[in-house]
Automatic annotation (TrEMBL):
PANTHER family hit by this protein: CYTOPLASMIC PROTEIN, CYTOPLASMIC PROTEIN-RELATED
Top-level taxon of origin: Bacteria
SUPFAM superfamilies according to UniProt: YjbR-like (SSF142906)
Keyword S-adenosyl-L-methionine attributed: no
Keyword Disulfide bond: no
GO molecular-function terms, A-Z: DNA binding
Descriptive protein name: Predicted DNA-binding protein, MmcQ/YjbR family
Length: 122
């Protein structure tokens, strides 16, 4: 999955938006103002094709054990709730990466107030 496919997939989620809230480098994907994915464009240009995704703490451990070369504790994030995932050039299939993005999005949506959740999870 390259950066364009990643961006298209994340923005394909209901009410997903992209933003650069921290600097001109960190591309952040949000739903209802809450972050579900982020990546560094400079790192992509340098060949580090990774993405930070929110994850249930128990599943985060499972993913790290199952994919030790592609899934790591979240870089510059809360290591309990975030994973850094290698998305381009990794052994992870596109489907697995999409499932990780789906999980992150769904986890963030599940924490939104009920009135904001309606229609977001299909």
């Amino acid at each position: 999955m390259n950066i364009e496919e990643l961006r298209d997939y994340c923005l394909g989620k209901p009410e997903a938006t992209e933003d650069f809230p921290f600097d001109n480098d960190t591309l952040v994907f949000k739903v209802k103002g809450k972050v579900f994915a982020l990546t560094s464009l400079k790192k992509w240009e340098a060949g580090d094709h990774s993405l930070n995704l929110k994850c249930d703490p128990e599943k985060a451990i499972e993913y790290r054990e199952k994919y030790p070369d592609e899934v790591f504790p979240g870089y510059h994030m809360n290591k309990k709730h975030w994973n850094t995932v290698v998305v381009d050039g990794s052994q992870l299939s596109k489907k697995v990466i999409q499932n990780l993005i789906n999980h992150s999005y769904a986890l963030v949506v599940s924490k939104l107030p009920k009135s904001q959740r309606e229609g977001l999870l299909r």
